Amino acid sequence: MTDAAATAATPGDDTDTETDFVAATRVFYDAIAEDYFDRFRAGHAAQPLERAVLAAYAEFVRGSGGGSGQVADLGCGPGWVTGFLDSLGLSVFGLDLSASMLAVARREHPGLRFEQGSMLELDLADGTLAGVVSWYSTVHTPADRLPALFAEFCRVLAPGGHLLLGFQVGDVHKHHDQPFGRPVSMTFQRRRPERIAELLTEAGLTLVSQTVRAADEQAGESSPQAFLMARKP
Asked: 118: which DSSP letter?
């Protein structure tokens, strides 16, 4: 799942017209989109706890009755979470930086809406969404940009709307160099759930739940996974 990045590079990056780490993230995921889809196509379907968290989130959103009733899956990547939330009855659309990722999402989920853009600057009016999902897309946002990002999430949520975050837990970031043999690199930033909860509170949101599961070593994970849900009062 993709949006604003910490570190990524490839020859010929053009970052003159937008923030460097945003442009770099676009380049990274454009380069690996099909490889990423083939490698991780099982997605959340292989993880029962993830499915349960998303199902619980859908219930909270349906019960809130906030805004337009729409949910934005920000940094949607190939659209796995977008499609799953749609199957749960939510009115959901996806947004991503990467045109290549969006091409995969549109191919795999032809009945859903996917748009290109940055979750740091959403082209949405204040208070219009019933829900925002950022499923492993904040892992590319530098720590000093998280307050502004969470404030943007809060801005577009209607009163009573819900936010769901998924991310890896830890203090040591993980760097991927030339994944799938592609000439790009990326640093994935791990976070502490308690710190993310503090930042969400500072952004004006109220924590609803905090779920952490152990790393699934059989799936190649090296760190626990966290899922935080918050509500706009």
From this structure: -
How far is it, in rounded angstroms, from Cα 147 to Cα 152?
9
Predicted TM-score (pTM) of the model is 0.86
Strand partners, 165: 134, 228
Q: Are 67 and 128 in contact (CB under 8 A)?
A: yes
Pair 221, 49: CB distance under 8 Å:
no
The CA-based angle 105-139-67, given to 5 degrees, is 65
Q: Could you tell me which of 62, 81, 63, 65 has the C-alpha nearest to residue 73? A: 81
**pLDDT 10s digits, 138-164:** 988 999 999 999 999 999 999 999 999
Closest CA to 104 of 47, 50, 41: 41
Domain 7-231 class in CATH: alpha beta
